[in-house]
Task: inverse folding
Protein backbone atom coordinates (compact mmCIF):
# COMPACT_ATOMS: atom_id res chain seq x y z
CA UNK A 1 0.00 0.00 0.00
CA UNK A 2 1.49 3.42 -0.92
CA UNK A 3 2.51 5.66 1.94
CA UNK A 4 0.40 8.80 2.50
CA UNK A 5 1.98 11.99 1.19
CA UNK A 6 2.48 13.34 4.75
CA UNK A 7 4.46 10.28 5.89
CA UNK A 8 8.04 11.24 6.88
CA UNK A 9 9.57 8.88 4.33
CA UNK A 10 7.29 10.11 1.56
CA UNK A 11 7.94 13.76 2.33
CA UNK A 12 11.68 13.17 2.64
CA UNK A 13 11.73 11.70 -0.88
CA UNK A 14 10.05 14.85 -2.23
CA UNK A 15 11.89 17.47 -0.19
CA UNK A 16 14.72 18.06 -2.72
CA UNK A 17 12.10 18.78 -5.39
CA UNK A 18 10.03 20.92 -3.03
CA UNK A 19 13.02 23.00 -1.91
CA UNK A 20 13.81 23.66 -5.57
CA UNK A 21 10.19 24.66 -6.09
CA UNK A 22 10.45 27.22 -3.28
CA UNK A 23 13.62 28.73 -4.75
CA UNK A 24 11.93 28.80 -8.15
CA UNK A 25 8.95 30.76 -6.79
CA UNK A 26 11.31 33.32 -5.27
CA UNK A 27 13.21 33.64 -8.56
CA UNK A 28 9.98 34.11 -10.51
CA UNK A 29 8.86 36.89 -8.18
CA UNK A 30 12.27 38.57 -8.45
CA UNK A 31 12.10 38.40 -12.27
CA UNK A 32 8.74 40.14 -12.47
CA UNK A 33 9.57 42.64 -9.73
CA UNK A 34 12.67 43.71 -11.68
CA UNK A 35 10.48 44.28 -14.77
CA UNK A 36 7.96 46.48 -13.01
CA UNK A 37 5.17 43.96 -12.62
CA UNK A 38 2.74 44.09 -9.69
CA UNK A 39 1.82 40.81 -7.99
CA UNK A 40 -1.95 40.49 -7.55
CA UNK A 41 -4.37 38.07 -5.89
CA UNK A 42 -7.84 37.55 -7.33
CA UNK A 43 -10.76 35.48 -5.97
CA UNK A 44 -10.69 31.73 -6.39
CA UNK A 45 -14.46 31.19 -5.95
CA UNK A 46 -16.22 33.00 -8.80
CA UNK A 47 -19.54 33.09 -10.64
CA UNK A 48 -17.91 32.09 -13.94
CA UNK A 49 -14.81 29.85 -13.79
CA UNK A 50 -13.94 30.21 -17.50
CA UNK A 51 -15.43 29.46 -20.90
CA UNK A 52 -13.10 26.79 -22.31
CA UNK A 53 -15.40 24.19 -23.82
CA UNK A 54 -13.71 21.03 -22.52
CA UNK A 55 -12.76 22.08 -18.98
CA UNK A 56 -14.82 20.86 -16.04
CA UNK A 57 -14.99 23.05 -12.94
CA UNK A 58 -15.52 22.36 -9.23
CA UNK A 59 -18.79 23.75 -7.83
CA UNK A 60 -19.20 25.38 -4.43
CA UNK A 61 -21.68 27.69 -2.72
CA UNK A 62 -21.60 31.02 -0.86
CA UNK A 63 -23.90 31.41 2.15
CA UNK A 64 -24.93 35.00 2.93
CA UNK A 65 -25.59 36.24 6.49
CA UNK A 66 -29.31 36.56 5.61
CA UNK A 67 -29.45 32.92 4.56
CA UNK A 68 -29.20 33.56 0.85
CA UNK A 69 -27.28 31.11 -1.30
CA UNK A 70 -25.20 31.73 -4.42
CA UNK A 71 -23.66 29.02 -6.57
CA UNK A 72 -19.98 29.61 -7.23
CA UNK A 73 -17.17 27.76 -8.98
CA UNK A 74 -13.45 27.38 -8.31
CA UNK A 75 -11.81 29.14 -11.22
CA UNK A 76 -9.95 27.25 -13.94
CA UNK A 77 -7.80 30.34 -14.54
CA UNK A 78 -7.56 33.86 -13.05
CA UNK A 79 -7.74 35.29 -16.59
CA UNK A 80 -11.09 37.10 -16.43
CA UNK A 81 -10.31 38.71 -13.09
CA UNK A 82 -6.84 39.82 -14.13
CA UNK A 83 -8.14 41.38 -17.33
CA UNK A 84 -10.63 43.38 -15.28
CA UNK A 85 -7.64 44.77 -13.38
CA UNK A 86 -6.03 45.74 -16.70
CA UNK A 87 -9.17 47.72 -17.52
CA UNK A 88 -8.92 49.40 -14.13
CA UNK A 89 -5.37 50.54 -14.86
CA UNK A 90 -3.31 48.10 -12.79
CA UNK A 91 -0.59 47.98 -15.46
CA UNK A 92 1.70 44.94 -15.84
CA UNK A 93 0.52 42.26 -13.40
CA UNK A 94 1.33 38.66 -12.48
CA UNK A 95 -0.13 36.04 -10.17
CA UNK A 96 0.84 32.64 -8.80
CA UNK A 97 -2.70 31.31 -8.48
CA UNK A 98 -4.17 28.02 -7.39
CA UNK A 99 -6.56 26.77 -10.08
CA UNK A 100 -8.90 23.79 -10.32
CA UNK A 101 -9.83 21.56 -13.27
CA UNK A 102 -12.04 18.64 -12.42
CA UNK A 103 -11.32 15.21 -13.84
CA UNK A 104 -7.62 15.80 -14.58
CA UNK A 105 -5.09 13.38 -13.09
CA UNK A 106 -1.85 11.94 -14.51
CA UNK A 107 1.90 12.32 -14.14
CA UNK A 108 1.52 15.76 -15.81
CA UNK A 109 -1.96 16.77 -14.59
CA UNK A 110 -3.58 17.42 -11.22
CA UNK A 111 -7.11 18.59 -10.42
CA UNK A 112 -5.62 21.40 -8.27
CA UNK A 113 -2.41 23.08 -9.36
CA UNK A 114 -0.56 26.40 -9.54
CA UNK A 115 -0.73 28.69 -12.54
CA UNK A 116 1.73 31.48 -13.18
CA UNK A 117 -0.20 34.05 -15.19
CA UNK A 118 0.97 37.46 -16.35
CA UNK A 119 -0.29 40.31 -18.53
CA UNK A 120 1.47 43.33 -19.98
CA UNK A 121 -0.40 46.22 -21.62
CA UNK A 122 1.09 47.09 -25.01
CA UNK A 123 2.93 43.78 -25.40
CA UNK A 124 3.05 42.10 -28.82
CA UNK A 125 3.27 38.41 -29.65
CA UNK A 126 6.98 38.80 -30.40
CA UNK A 127 7.53 40.72 -27.18
CA UNK A 128 5.76 38.11 -25.07
CA UNK A 129 7.73 35.30 -26.67
CA UNK A 130 10.98 37.14 -25.90
CA UNK A 131 9.92 37.82 -22.31
CA UNK A 132 8.89 34.21 -21.75
CA UNK A 133 12.23 32.98 -23.07
CA UNK A 134 13.97 35.51 -20.79
CA UNK A 135 12.04 34.09 -17.82
CA UNK A 136 13.13 30.53 -18.60
CA UNK A 137 16.77 31.59 -18.82
CA UNK A 138 16.53 33.67 -15.64
CA UNK A 139 15.03 31.00 -13.36
CA UNK A 140 16.46 27.79 -14.85
CA UNK A 141 19.98 26.58 -15.69
CA UNK A 142 21.08 26.83 -19.35
CA UNK A 143 20.38 23.12 -19.94
CA UNK A 144 17.58 21.24 -18.21
CA UNK A 145 16.54 17.59 -18.20
CA UNK A 146 13.15 16.19 -17.21
CA UNK A 147 11.42 12.88 -17.92
CA UNK A 148 14.38 11.75 -20.03
CA UNK A 149 14.38 14.81 -22.32
CA UNK A 150 17.32 17.23 -22.32
CA UNK A 151 16.59 20.80 -23.50
CA UNK A 152 19.04 23.64 -24.14
CA UNK A 153 17.39 26.90 -23.11
CA UNK A 154 19.99 29.19 -24.67
CA UNK A 155 18.12 29.16 -27.99
CA UNK A 156 14.55 28.50 -29.07
CA UNK A 157 12.45 27.48 -32.06
CA UNK A 158 9.46 29.39 -33.42
CA UNK A 159 7.05 27.33 -35.48
CA UNK A 160 3.66 28.36 -36.84
CA UNK A 161 0.88 25.84 -36.57
CA UNK A 162 0.56 25.80 -40.37
CA UNK A 163 4.28 24.99 -40.72
CA UNK A 164 4.03 22.32 -38.03
CA UNK A 165 1.21 20.57 -39.91
CA UNK A 166 3.09 20.90 -43.18
CA UNK A 167 6.34 19.45 -41.77
CA UNK A 168 5.03 16.79 -39.37
CA UNK A 169 1.60 15.87 -40.76
CA UNK A 170 1.97 16.56 -44.46
CA UNK A 171 -1.23 18.62 -44.56
CA UNK A 172 -2.21 22.18 -45.47
CA UNK A 173 -3.95 23.11 -42.23
CA UNK A 174 -5.47 26.41 -43.28
CA UNK A 175 -6.64 25.21 -46.69
CA UNK A 176 -8.51 22.33 -45.03
CA UNK A 177 -9.98 24.36 -42.14
CA UNK A 178 -13.42 23.04 -41.14
CA UNK A 179 -13.14 20.26 -43.74
CA UNK A 180 -12.40 17.10 -41.76
CA UNK A 181 -12.43 14.71 -44.77
CA UNK A 182 -9.92 16.91 -46.63
CA UNK A 183 -7.60 17.14 -43.63
CA UNK A 184 -7.85 13.38 -43.06
CA UNK A 185 -7.04 12.67 -46.71
CA UNK A 186 -3.96 14.90 -46.67
CA UNK A 187 -2.79 13.43 -43.35
CA UNK A 188 -3.33 9.87 -44.59
CA UNK A 189 -5.69 8.88 -41.76
CA UNK A 190 -9.23 7.57 -41.57
CA UNK A 191 -11.87 9.66 -39.87
CA UNK A 192 -13.27 8.01 -36.78
CA UNK A 193 -17.04 7.76 -36.31
CA UNK A 194 -18.40 11.18 -35.36
CA UNK A 195 -14.97 12.82 -35.60
CA UNK A 196 -15.15 16.46 -36.67
CA UNK A 197 -12.43 18.80 -37.86
CA UNK A 198 -11.53 20.01 -34.36
CA UNK A 199 -11.28 16.45 -33.04
CA UNK A 200 -9.01 15.46 -35.93
CA UNK A 201 -6.92 18.62 -35.51
CA UNK A 202 -6.15 17.73 -31.90
CA UNK A 203 -5.60 14.05 -32.69
CA UNK A 204 -2.94 14.96 -35.25
CA UNK A 205 -1.45 17.63 -33.00
CA UNK A 206 -1.09 15.21 -30.09
CA UNK A 207 0.12 12.24 -32.14
CA UNK A 208 2.42 13.76 -34.74
CA UNK A 209 3.49 17.25 -33.66
CA UNK A 210 3.79 17.50 -29.87
CA UNK A 211 6.09 14.44 -29.59
CA UNK A 212 8.55 16.15 -31.98
CA UNK A 213 8.79 19.68 -30.56
CA UNK A 214 10.23 21.35 -27.47
CA UNK A 215 12.97 18.78 -27.07
CA UNK A 216 16.41 20.01 -28.21
CA UNK A 217 15.33 23.58 -27.44
CA UNK A 218 12.10 25.30 -26.38
CA UNK A 219 9.45 25.51 -29.11
CA UNK A 220 6.96 28.36 -29.40
CA UNK A 221 4.08 26.96 -31.48
CA UNK A 222 2.37 30.08 -32.88
CA UNK A 223 -0.53 31.33 -35.01
CA UNK A 224 -3.25 28.83 -34.18
CA UNK A 225 -6.38 28.55 -36.33
CA UNK A 226 -8.75 31.32 -35.26
CA UNK A 227 -11.36 28.78 -34.10
CA UNK A 228 -8.83 27.48 -31.52
CA UNK A 229 -8.21 30.78 -29.75
CA UNK A 230 -11.41 31.94 -28.08
CA UNK A 231 -9.82 34.83 -26.16
CA UNK A 232 -7.08 35.79 -28.63
CA UNK A 233 -7.10 38.50 -31.27
CA UNK A 234 -7.13 37.46 -34.91
CA UNK A 235 -3.87 38.23 -36.69
CA UNK A 236 -4.42 41.50 -38.62
CA UNK A 237 -2.16 40.13 -41.38
CA UNK A 238 -4.12 36.86 -41.73
CA UNK A 239 -7.53 36.60 -40.02
CA UNK A 240 -7.56 32.83 -40.55
CA UNK A 241 -5.22 32.56 -37.56
CA UNK A 242 -5.11 34.03 -34.07
CA UNK A 243 -2.18 35.56 -32.22
CA UNK A 244 -1.73 32.63 -29.88
CA UNK A 245 1.23 30.45 -28.94
CA UNK A 246 1.92 27.44 -26.78
CA UNK A 247 5.36 26.78 -25.30
CA UNK A 248 6.93 23.32 -25.12
CA UNK A 249 10.01 22.49 -23.01
CA UNK A 250 11.43 19.02 -22.30
CA UNK A 251 8.71 17.68 -24.56
CA UNK A 252 5.95 19.06 -22.30
CA UNK A 253 3.40 21.75 -22.97
CA UNK A 254 4.33 24.47 -20.49
CA UNK A 255 2.35 27.59 -21.36
CA UNK A 256 -0.49 29.04 -23.44
CA UNK A 257 -0.49 32.70 -24.51
CA UNK A 258 -2.62 35.23 -26.37
CA UNK A 259 -2.47 38.72 -27.75
CA UNK A 260 -5.74 39.53 -26.08
CA UNK A 261 -9.06 40.11 -27.78
CA UNK A 262 -10.38 43.48 -26.56
CA UNK A 263 -13.58 43.73 -28.64
CA UNK A 264 -16.49 43.08 -26.25
CA UNK A 265 -19.03 42.31 -28.99
CA UNK A 266 -16.78 39.75 -30.68
CA UNK A 267 -15.89 38.23 -27.31
CA UNK A 268 -19.58 37.87 -26.42
CA UNK A 269 -20.28 36.14 -29.74
CA UNK A 270 -17.39 33.71 -29.16
CA UNK A 271 -18.58 32.95 -25.63
CA UNK A 272 -22.11 32.24 -26.84
CA UNK A 273 -20.77 29.89 -29.52
CA UNK A 274 -18.54 28.12 -26.98
CA UNK A 275 -21.45 27.73 -24.55
CA UNK A 276 -23.59 26.21 -27.30
CA UNK A 277 -20.82 23.70 -28.03
CA UNK A 278 -20.44 22.85 -24.35
CA UNK A 279 -24.19 22.30 -24.05
CA UNK A 280 -24.21 20.07 -27.13
CA UNK A 281 -21.29 18.00 -25.82
CA UNK A 282 -21.98 17.87 -22.09
CA UNK A 283 -25.67 18.71 -21.71
CA UNK A 284 -25.42 22.12 -20.03
CA UNK A 285 -23.57 25.41 -20.23
CA UNK A 286 -22.82 25.03 -16.50
CA UNK A 287 -22.63 28.64 -15.30
CA UNK A 288 -23.67 32.17 -16.08
CA UNK A 289 -22.00 34.28 -18.72
CA UNK A 290 -19.52 36.65 -17.07
CA UNK A 291 -21.32 39.90 -17.78
CA UNK A 292 -18.94 41.82 -15.50
CA UNK A 293 -16.00 40.73 -17.65
CA UNK A 294 -17.79 41.70 -20.85
CA UNK A 295 -18.72 45.07 -19.32
CA UNK A 296 -15.07 45.63 -18.45
CA UNK A 297 -14.06 44.88 -22.05
CA UNK A 298 -16.72 47.30 -23.29
CA UNK A 299 -15.36 49.95 -20.93
CA UNK A 300 -12.00 49.53 -22.64
CA UNK A 301 -9.14 47.12 -22.05
CA UNK A 302 -5.76 48.35 -23.29
CA UNK A 303 -4.08 46.33 -26.05
CA UNK A 304 -2.31 43.60 -24.08
CA UNK A 305 -0.74 40.18 -24.24
CA UNK A 306 -0.94 37.55 -21.54
CA UNK A 307 0.21 34.04 -20.75
CA UNK A 308 -0.69 31.16 -18.43
CA UNK A 309 2.26 28.94 -17.49
CA UNK A 310 1.98 25.74 -15.48
CA UNK A 311 4.15 26.48 -12.46
CA UNK A 312 4.17 22.87 -11.25
CA UNK A 313 5.54 21.70 -14.61
CA UNK A 314 8.12 24.48 -14.45
CA UNK A 315 9.09 23.12 -11.02
CA UNK A 316 9.37 19.62 -12.53
CA UNK A 317 11.75 20.96 -15.17
CA UNK A 318 13.76 22.91 -12.60
CA UNK A 319 14.16 19.92 -10.28
CA UNK A 320 14.11 17.03 -12.74
CA UNK A 321 11.06 15.53 -11.03
CA UNK A 322 9.28 12.90 -13.15
CA UNK A 323 5.75 13.52 -11.83
CA UNK A 324 3.70 16.54 -10.86
CA UNK A 325 2.98 14.84 -7.52
CA UNK A 326 6.71 15.07 -6.71
CA UNK A 327 6.58 18.89 -6.63
CA UNK A 328 3.39 19.27 -4.56
CA UNK A 329 3.50 19.40 -0.79
CA UNK A 330 0.52 17.11 -0.10
Result:
Amino acid sequence: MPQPSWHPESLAARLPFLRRRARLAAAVRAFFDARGYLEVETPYAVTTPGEEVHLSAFATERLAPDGGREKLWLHTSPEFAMKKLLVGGAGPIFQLARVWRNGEASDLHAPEFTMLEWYRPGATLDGLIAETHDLLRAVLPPVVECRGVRTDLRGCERLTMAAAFRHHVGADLLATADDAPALAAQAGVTLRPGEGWEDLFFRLLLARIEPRIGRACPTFLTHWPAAQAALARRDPADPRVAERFELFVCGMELANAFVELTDAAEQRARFIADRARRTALYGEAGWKLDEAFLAALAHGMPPSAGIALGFDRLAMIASGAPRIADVTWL
